């Protein structure tokens, strides 16, 4: 029987209230300790069942659960690191894109950071139901592109640089039905230093 590696909930790299006023403490506590924890638990249950499955049919029956919960775990683990306490709230460096390779690539692909935000928000606002908005590196052209995935599908077509959770659980307690306000606010807590580290790794070829 294959050894199953247990997934675990990664700790947040900041306090639950650190992203205020843009993302409330209440959202962060529920999102991390309830939603993400549930994906972790369900992924471990599906992995354990898969390891015990004796037939192709049993293993095929587990594919949807593995994809949904495995994607949920991967996406949220990335999302927490994508965020940082905001410079606009004098709490950290969130929202600040410094001169460097990522800023240069954003300007090449979109003209400016403001244009990227506008295009990203317009594209992700169009997601029907739940999903994720992404800034990713196209592995063929090595250029930055905006794309989306449905449900908890992880980004497989691009190397993820920034991912934004567009599920209602990510914003509803604070922004209600106004997804556009959430999308505007999130840029104040985007961790561009983490994004640049991801970008540099992607371009260096180690994940292409
Ligand atoms: Fe989420």
UniProtKB/TrEMBL annotation:
UniProt KW keywords: Antioxidant, Manganese, Metal-binding, Oxidoreductase
InterPro entries: Fe/Mn_Superoxide_Dismutase (IPR050265), Mn/Fe_SOD (IPR001189), Mn/Fe_SOD_BS (IPR019833), Mn/Fe_SOD_C (IPR019832), Mn/Fe_SOD_N (IPR019831), Mn/Fe_SOD_N_sf (IPR036324), SOD_C_sf (IPR036314)
Residues in Manganese/iron superoxide dismutase N-terminal domain copies: 8-84
Family: Belongs to the iron/manganese superoxide dismutase family.
EC number: 1.15.1.1
SUPFAM superfamilies tied to this protein: Fe,Mn superoxide dismutase (SOD), C-terminal domain, Fe,Mn superoxide dismutase (SOD), N-terminal domain
Top enzyme class: oxidoreductase
GO MF annotations, alphabetized: manganese ion binding; superoxide dismutase activity
UniProt GO cellular component terms: mitochondrion
Source taxon at top rank: Eukaryota
Catalytic activity: 2 superoxide + 2 H(+) = H2O2 + O2
Domain Manganese/iron superoxide dismutase C-terminal: 100-198
Role of this protein: Destroys radicals which are normally produced within the cells and which are toxic to biological systems.
The protein's name in its UniProt record: Superoxide dismutase
Keyword Oxidoreductase belongs to the record: yes
Cofactor: Mn(2+)
Record: residues binding Mn(2+): 31, 76, 165, 169
Keyword Oxidoreductase: yes
Organism, scientific name: Gymnopilus dilepis
């Amino acid at each position: 029987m294959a050894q199953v590696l247990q997934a675990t909930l990664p700790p947040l790299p900041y306090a639950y209230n650190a992203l205020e006023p843009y993302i409330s403490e209440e959202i962060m506590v529920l999102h991390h300790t309830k939603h993400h924890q549930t994906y972790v638990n369900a992924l471990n249950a599906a992995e354990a069942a898969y390891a015990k499955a004796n037939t192709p049919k049993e293993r095929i029956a587990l594919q949807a659960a593995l994809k949904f919960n495995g994607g949920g775990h991967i996406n949220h683990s990335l999302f927490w690191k994508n965020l940082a306490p905001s410079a606009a709230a004098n709490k950290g460096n969130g929202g600040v894109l410094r001169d460097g390779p990522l800023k240069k690539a954003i300007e090449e692909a979109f003209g400016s950071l403001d244009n990227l935000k506008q295009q990203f928000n317009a594209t992700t606002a169009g997601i029907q139901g739940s999903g994720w908005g992404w800034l990713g590196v196209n592995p063929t052209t090595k250029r930055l592109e905006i794309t989306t995935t449905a449900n908890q599908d992880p980004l497989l077509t691009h190397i993820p640089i920034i991912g934004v959770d567009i599920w209602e659980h990510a914003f509803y307690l604070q922004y209600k039905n106004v997804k556009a306000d959430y999308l505007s606010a999130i840029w104040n807590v985007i961790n561009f230093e983490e994004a640049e580290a991801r970008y540099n790794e992607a371009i260096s070829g180690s994940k292409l």
